[in-house]
Amino acid sequence: MTEERGTVGPARRRGLADEVADRVRESIFGGVYAPGAQLREVELSRALEVSRGPVREALLRLEREGLVRSEWHRGATVTTLSPRDVAELDSLRGALEELAVRQVVDHASEEDLDAVAEIAARMDRAEDEHALVRYDIAFHDAVYDASRHQRLREAWQAIRSQVHLFLLTRIRVSAADYLTHIPGEHRELAAALSARDAGAALDLFAAHRRHAFDVLSGPGTAAEPEGTRDDAS
Amino acid sequence: MTEERGTVGPARRRGLADEVADRVRESIFGGVYAPGAQLREVELSRALEVSRGPVREALLRLEREGLVRSEWHRGATVTTLSPRDVAELDSLRGALEELAVRQVVDHASEEDLDAVAEIAARMDRAEDEHALVRYDIAFHDAVYDASRHQRLREAWQAIRSQVHLFLLTRIRVSAADYLTHIPGEHRELAAALSARDAGAALDLFAAHRRHAFDVLSGPGTAAEPEGTRDDAS
DNA sequence: GATTGTCGCAATGTTAACATTGCGACAAGT
DNA sequence: ACTTGTCGCAATGTTAACATTGCGACAATC
After folding, report:
1. Membrane-spanning residues where (chains A, B) (predicted)?
2. Residue A103's closest chain B neighbor by CA?
3. Which of A173, A195, B136, B223 has the fewest CB atoms within 10 Å, counting from its CB?
4. Could you say which residues of chain B have pLDDT below 70?
């Protein structure tokens, strides 16, 4: 995600838990564990050849990203996104992106903006669908990085994986639509940010989200009452 | 925090990690561990008479709340809020509260609004400063609960403890100011929400934050250069 | 005297065994 | 046939011992 670029970067070691979290995350995005699937600690620890400690820690971290939900003595399962969840992600993304745009316009360096533009430009070189989605997420990562707002980045990371999951579903619904719209939109977005034009960027981001939301929310999994799903936290 | 009210609530057991997290959090808010203090795993596990496992898990959870920061092989320390951190909290709160107000106006039930109003009314009955701050936080909790937006609530919880820390510092700077302004503002806020007047509520929330921000950012810890010209949100 | 290399301790990271819990299967009773 | 009670297993929660790492102290050298 964000690697220090330019400076040397303090070469800190990562620990097994991070490694495990990465592997499991990629497995989920790769389709090994479908939404709703159980993630058993012993199974993972055997497969990755580590003990249950780091696996537990990794699952906790994935839970923080919303990729996994777990209940007391009932283990962890891969998050499933209901229509309501998708709506929540959409509105929360909106709030965060709005702040991000303002922060970028005010505080981003030219290097930050160049990085955003470069990722937008690179989208064409995606080999397959998964890579395309990865680039999509990377673009948004770059925007949040450019905001120079640590807590905003953390808030984004708390829904990032869920958005990834969402996009994966979306591209499966209509890959063609995705490919024809997103790269261009990203380039426009990057241009508006480089020009530090907050108004234009805000409008473009709103359209960008609306587009994504409509595709999946329209024909895909629209009707489902879903009554109430709250729980205390 | 959020307690099931009305319904029975599925009586789930909590596990030691949650208990430990609560105890440590209260210890921090109670001043036992000052910002910057080290939280040693063995020390905590001895004090709370549990093993290091649950303590580790609890520290991870507190890290998710931003109350604690930890680095590889260097343990956990209580978060210290720099002026820049305060600015970040302020702007992020702004983004979240804006969404919250919209969601409340659109989706909250009358019971939700009553709960908000009741907490606002109850603020006068605070015995000491700590209780006052607790009520302050509880008010905002109620607003987010009323938004009926799970992920928004989670985003709030990711900064909630830091805001708590911030308020604790603030009330120490000028308790009188706090007491004369906040309860009234909360009541106005509750009234605007009950009237489902989004515009008024938005303005009031902005003023509410600005007030808190100015008190601490002005005379308190202002002088630090910090290289940033911070926003007006 | 300042610098650099080595050593040791203290704290975290990791592991594996033990305890507890929840769920489903099976059986007995109505 | 449906309900109810018991049992057993499988998975998570917890614990304590072991391994690794980073930092500071001390000493040797220039």
Report:
1. none
2. B231
3. B223
4. 1-13, 217-233
Which pLDDT score is estimated for B173? Answer: 84
Residues B186 and B145 in one domain: yes
Query: Do A35 and A81 meet the contact criterion of CB atoms below 8 Å apart?
Result: yes
Confirm or reject contact between B60 and chain A (CB < 8 A).
yes
Structural domain includes residue A229: no
Question: Is the CB of A232 less than 8 angstroms away from the CB of B66?
Answer: no
- What CATH number is associated with residue B145? 1.20.120.530
Same domain, A65 and A155: no
Q: Beta strand pairing status for B75-78 and A68-71?
A: unpaired
User: The domain containing residue A30 runs over which residues?
Assistant: 8-78
pLDDT in tens, B98-153: 999 999 999 999 999 999 999 999 988 888 888 999 999 999 999 999 999 999 99
CB contact set of B111 (below 8 Å; sequence gap of 6+): B6
In a domain, B194, yes or no: yes
Q: Give the gap in angstroms from C-alpha B120 to the nearest C-alpha of chain A.
A: 21
Closest chain A residue to B14, measured at CA: A72
Tell me how close the Cα of A151 comes to any Cα of chain B, in angstroms: 7
Whether the per-residue pLDDT at A4 is higher than 50: the answer is no
Please give the Cα distance from A51 to B80 (Å, whole number): 34
Q: Which nucleotides of D are covered by protein (CB under 7 A)?
A: 11-17, 20-23
